[in-house]
Design brief:
22 strands, FAD/NAD(P)-binding domain, 36% helix, Polyamine Oxidase, Chain A, domain 2, 3 domains, 24% strand, alpha+beta
């Protein structure tokens, strides 16, 4: 019988445990232990019901385009719980000079594909509009070194596109500015498109034409909230010996061809270990493996805050249609993005309620997590009144603080991951999973955890090895 430890009970660790449980039920001679330092599993996936509203503390959905989360939900028997975003209301806005400007039709991940719509939009100046037009005729560039997202987008569309679109969009995903992120790691598909077509606009227009008629919603969620996925995963993982909540692992090391896991003052022996914690935590656990730990501790993380507010029907009537809006840093506000949940997922709130999520924090404003609840309430209500004209007090406010949970893919990230994988090849029985490596969304974490489980099973000669795959679609803040 082979023993495998999983350290970290977020969605990555749970996905790894589910894969091991499936193989165990199919006859693989394996047993496993899932360690989680907190009292609950699920990590940043947490759902609460407040005033008949379904409130998501963290991720509220996943991109339909990425199949791994939806596939897992189908295996768990949750397909009948799928709800799609109401894309006929998917118009979103960007706050510019204190006014909400609609994102023009055809602007896809910062890439304009419908020139007429962009030219009649008040979102951009004429200087930027002319830059967009010239970009349509750009030739493919010469191969170069990794660049920041800001440099890449500015080269194609100018600084205004960075400041008004790229920066606020990525701040809500990675908790970092476009000038801190590697374009090769964050937007690999755009880099490939630029290399093939030159013009991102022409490339994206060609891609959209090739998938015309696809009527799937942009986002998928679960009817009773994202925590349904966590609950259903836990139902498949035996309680007792397989699950150890409230157990902090202190160190992971290798000795005599076995892996040693130290926790609660004792050391246990395993044939393999999957470390599914944020990269800094993984570095601390694996500090005796100096080269690997040294790479892991260079992966940056940002903190974020999610505030969810509910109002009565009168407020709902004055909120614009659409999914929500982004707030560029130049607006000098601390709210970075707002989602109109009752528009995006009507199932989340009764018809007489307005439900709004506000994203705050990120690398430029980590200090907000230290603010008191009264300070945050005052700040959010003041800024929402300024932006939306909402003067009424909310019926409820829920605040969720997430410290160092958003992986930040800086320059050279892909080369760093190659070095990490090189170290792992010399450490059989050790796998890493989570949002630090190749994608930060829920589907990426599902794929990461499941893939880690399959890798260690293959290394133990319990299942055939599978080829790796990469994530290439960015999440969005709204």
């Amino acid at each position: 019988m082979r023993r495998i430890a999983i350290v970290g009970g977020g969605i990555s660790g749970l996905s790894a445990a589910f894969e091991l449980e499936r193989q165990r039920r199919e006859g693989a001679p394996v047993e496993y232990v899932l360690f989680e330092s907190s009292s609950r599993f699920g990590g940043v996936i947490k759902t609460e019901r407040v005033d008949d509203c379904i409130v998501e503390a963290g991720a509220d959905s996943f991109l339909t385009e990425k199949p791994w989360a939806a596939d897992l939900c189908r295996e768990l028997g949750l397909e009948d719980q799928f709800i799609g975003s109401k894309d006929h209301q998917k118009t979103s806005f960007i706050l510019v000079n204190g006014r909400l400007r609609p994102i023009p039709d055809g602007l896809v991940f910062m890439i304009p594909t419908k020139l007429r719509a962009v030219f009649f939009s008040p979102l951009f100046s004429w200087r930027t509009k002319l830059k967009i037009l010239r970009e349509w005729f750009d030739p493919p560039p010469a191969a170069g070194a990794d660049a920041t997202v800001a440099d890449f987008i500015e080269r194609h569309y100018g600084p205004e596109m960075v400041e008004r679109v790229a920066d606020p969009l990525l701040a809500g995903i990675y908790g970092a500015s476009a000038r801190e992120l590697s374009v090769a790691a964050v937007l690999p598909r755009l880099v490939d498109m630029a290399g093939k077509y030159g013009s991102l606009g022409r490339a994206m227009a060609a891609m959209r034409a090739s998938i015309a008629g696809n009527q799937r919603p942009l986002f998928t969620s679960l009817r009773q909230g994202m925590e349904q996925m966590v609950d259903r995963l836990l139902a498949q993982i035996p309680a007792g010996a397989c699950r150890r909540p409230g157990t902090r692992v202190e160190a992971v090391g290798r000795e005599s061809l076995k892996w040693q896991v130290r926790n609660a003052g004792r050391t246990e022996e395993f044939d393999a270990v999957i470390v599914a914690t944020p990269a800094p935590g993984a570095a601390e656990l694996l500090k005796t493996i100096a080269p690997l730990a040294g790479e892991l501790c260079t992966i940056g993380y940002s903190s974020s805050m999610m505030a969810v507010l509910g109002w009565e029907e009168a407020v709902r009537r004055v909120i614009p249609g659409g999914f929500g809006f982004l707030v560029p840093r130049g607006e000098k506000l601390r709210i970075r993005a707002v989602t109109f949940v009752h528009n995006k997922f009507p199932e989340r709130a009764p018809p007489d309620r307005a439900l709004i999520r506000c994203f705050l924090g990120g690398s430029g404003d980590e200090a907000i997590l230290d603010s008191s609840e009264d300070e945050i309430r005052t700040l959010i209500c003041r800024e929402l009144e300024q932006m939306l004209g909402i003067a009424q007090k909310p019926l409820f406010l829920r605040i969720y603080r997430w410290k160092k949970v958003m992986a930040r893919y800086g320059l050279g990230h892909r080369a760093r991951i190659e070095r990490i994988n090189h170290h792992l090849r010399s450490l059989p029985g050790l796998a890493l999973a989570g949002n630090a490596y190749d994608g930060i969304g829920v589907p990426d974490c599902v794929r990461s955890g499941s893939g880690a489980a399959k890798r260690v099973l293959a290394e133990l000669a319990l299942v055939p090895a599978e080829p790796a795959c990469r994530s290439e679609f960015p999440e969005t803040a709204l």
